Amino acid sequence: MTAAGYGGEMLRCSQKALEQALLQLAEHAGNNKHRSNWMSTFLAACWVEAAGYEHTTNGVNQAVDDLFVLLPDNREHGRINPFVRSGTPSRWLKIANSGRSTVWNTGTRNGKQTVLFNQGHFEHGLRSDAIGVLLKGIGEDAPLPRRDALAVFLTRGHLWDAEPSREQLHDEASQRIGLNSHDFALITSDGELGCPVLGDPEWSPQLIEQSVLGPPASSHSQEELMEEQAPLWPTEHEFTHEQQDSEGFTWTRDVCHYSLRDVDVDGLTHQVLESLANAHMVLPEAARLVRRCVNALLVGNLILQGPPGTGKTTLARLLADAFEVHLIETTATSEWSPYHVVGGFRPAADGGLSATHGAVTRAALHCAQVVRQDEGEEVEAEARDESLFGYQAAWLFIDEFNRADIDKAIGSLFTVLSSCDARHLQATPVDLWFESTPDRRKLWVPARFRIIATMNDLDTSFVNQMSQGLTRRFQFVTVGVPTDRASADQEITEELRQAFASAHRWLHATYNDDLPAGSLEESSQECEQELKRLQRVVDGLRQPDTGPGWPVGTAQIVDVLRLMLLQRASNSGVDLAAVVDDAVADRVVPQMAGVGNEWQAFAGLFETQGFAAAARALRHLADPHHMP
User: Fold this and answer.
1) Local confidence band at 225 (pLDDT 50, 70, 90 cut-offs)
2) What is the pLDDT of residues 46-77, one digit of tens each?
3) Rounded to an integer, what distance in angstroms lies between the CA atom of residue 206 and that of residue 213?
4) What is the pLDDT of residue 40?
5) Label partner for 606 (CA 20 to 30 A): which of 58, 217, 285, 294?
6) Pick from 33-42, 56-65, 87-96, 471-480: least confident
7) Angle at the Cα of 28 (from 25 to 29), degrees rounded to 5?
8) How far is 131 from 178, CA to CA, in rounded Å?
9) Torsion sign (Cα): 287, 288, 289, 290
10) How does residue 84 score in pLDDT terms, banded at 50, 70 and 90?
11) Closest CA to 579 of 626, 527, 536, 537
């Protein structure tokens, strides 16, 4: 078929061809959201480079719009992820906010796709071996998108003067994303489209919107749409009343026996270590620490203990990501009771009482649903959650675990938590005494379910002790502060270098449009002297010449460096020494309330290094009558 058949005009691809392409691309990921994230993130990054866009958030936004916006006038559903199963609500994504909040961030926020980039961040561009990383991430046995289909999708705006051959189609598509024909073939599988590329009518946003492939009708308000935006980390999930009422919980016994599907300790450890490096985190004896955590989670529940700011929460999230589990997060408080952990009654709208689930019950039930979907068990349509595909389980993360009287709050679960063995769990369901029907009064906890908790073992004034009985139900791993000190050969440790890189990345990602951060190397050279002074303060706090030290965490260091870089970017003539001094006084010193009689030595350390404001602040902390 030639353009002459349509009056000699140049044509874009036909509506039929684009519909066929979108249907075939949906086969790539199917129900596996992670595979979709890999491909969409990779293509967006390729487009950034091919189009010459800056490696900034604005550049990513533009690339995502170029690739994935099919309905520019539909402010609710304008952006499509073609690698998601047709009919899935998440296939059509909101265009009201930036591209990073839809297609891009599904892969780079809490996914594994950051490893596609140099130094783990898109500002440094794709790695030279990004295609190999992509293929490994998708999986050796996983389907790749069909070559013709992806080519039609990428070239949908191209004007053809005649029906293209397959070779012409592939060449045009590969050039669009800056790949050669060989590399384009590597990321696709051979498969014909099944229909001519050109035809009448041409595709258009209006035709797509009216077709069976168009976005679902929506009755959401703008407020509801904003609430649907994915948070930085997954938050607590609770079934709707319709889901809860549709079936009892007896089915949980049928799925509670599935064990964790990955016992590759070396592989899991390596993945977490790689994620730590991408996050610019340095932990003491990191390989041994992570391996202990991985082993602990393969056996049972884990508590990460240590001073504030040592990366416990981030480590918990990276462990969950490596295990491919959905992490449900909550924070313990002094008001916690069995009601908050297991559940009980709460006032209902009709003036009576209704059953409500506590944190552990909610998470265990959610985990059972994930396991059921992951293992291909039969799931009713109303109970299916498309966002959970690709996960093997759901775990509960409890921050500040010992802020609660945890023995009292969790006491009724002692027996259940004593083992993650499937036979034990099948014999000891959780008693949901407050449920109204018999088939909902017992909940079987999946063998894949875990609790990861964090404990601040420094601030003993505001925490509760744990009994030996509860302690036995967890493995405790201490996350301390790095012990490396600066030396004559290395005046700035790797920890501080990585903390600076983390702060620089934050500034670049958060305020780059208004405050150009400059390159990491340039910023590091300009701040070199202040980094050395800060390093000496950190070393002196952690390992003083006499007396006990104060374990200042890496997170506190990052806080100081963020303030320094923020001031440097907004005021070229700023006194960096004064900025760092003020930052230490405002961010680090207030957390030293329990330093005791050592405050005088630390105040002297601050003064020796020229941190006069920090010294005054510490004196005031030790003696409130001493005005700074």
Assistant:
1) very low
2) 999 999 988 877 788 888 888 989 988 887 78
3) 12
4) 87
5) 285
6) 87-96
7) 120
8) 13
9) positive
10) confident
11) 527
Instruction: Report whether 122 contacts 105 (CB < 8 A).
Output: no
- The pLDDT, as a whole number, for residue 467 is 77
pLDDT at 4: 40
Determine phi and psi for 348, rounding to 5 degrees: -105, 165
Strands (E), 49-137: 79-80, 92-93
* Terminal CA-CA length for the chain: 83
Determine if the peptide bond prior to 201 is cis (ω within 30°): yes
The residues near 391 (Cβ < 8 Å, ≥ 6 apart) are 324, 325, 326, 370, 374
What is the CB neighbour count within 10 angstroms for residue 306? 23
How many residues does this entry show for the chain?
628
d(CA 350, CA 18): 52
For the beta carbon of residue 199, count every other beta carbon within 10 angstroms.
18
* b/e map 561-595, b = 16+ CB within 10 Å: bbbbbbbbbeeeeeebeebbbbbbbebbbebbeeb
Instruction: Identify which has the larger pLDDT, 513 or 623.
Output: 623
Cβ proximity of 447 and 256 under 8 Å: yes
| DSSP string for residues in 318-345 | HHHHHTTEEEEEEE--TT--HHHHTEEE
What is the C-alpha separation between 464 and 410, in angstroms, rounded? 13
Q: Are the beta carbons of 367 and 252 closer than 8 angstroms?
A: no
> How confident is the model over 292-313, as a mean pLDDT?
93
Q: What phi, psi does 591 have (nearest 5°)?
A: -90, 5
State how far the Cα of 112 lies from the Cα of 107, in Å rounded to an integer: 7
Give yes or no for residue 166 having a pLDDT over 90: yes
What pLDDT was estimated at residue 226?
33
The pLDDT of residue 220 is above 50 = no
User: Rounded to whole angstroms, how far apart are CA atoms 456 and 305?
Assistant: 6
- Work out the angle at residue 108's Cα, subtended by the Cα atoms of residues 37 and 235, and round it to the nearest 5 degrees: 95
Nearest residue to 155 via CA among 268, 12, 28, 265 = 12
Coil, strand or helix: which one is 216?
coil
Compute the average pLDDT of residues 234-255: 59
**420-425: long-range contacts, CB 8 A cutoff, minimum separation 24:** 420/299, 420/300, 420/301, 420/447, 420/449, 420/450, 421/447, 422/256, 422/257, 422/258, 422/259, 422/447, 425/256, 425/257
Residue 170: pLDDT above 90?
yes
- In Å, how far are 107, 234, 278, 333 from 130, measured between CA atoms? 14, 27, 15, 44
Judged against a pLDDT cut of 60, whether residue 143 lies above it is answered with yes
Residue with tokens 């959401």: 220
Q: CA 393: distance to chain centroid?
A: 16
Q: What is the largest CA-CA distance in the chain?
A: 91
Q: What average pLDDT does the structure give for the chain?
A: 84
The residue among 152 and 623 whose pLDDT is bigger is: 152
Q: Are strands 353-357 and 343-347 parallel, antiparallel or unpaired?
A: antiparallel
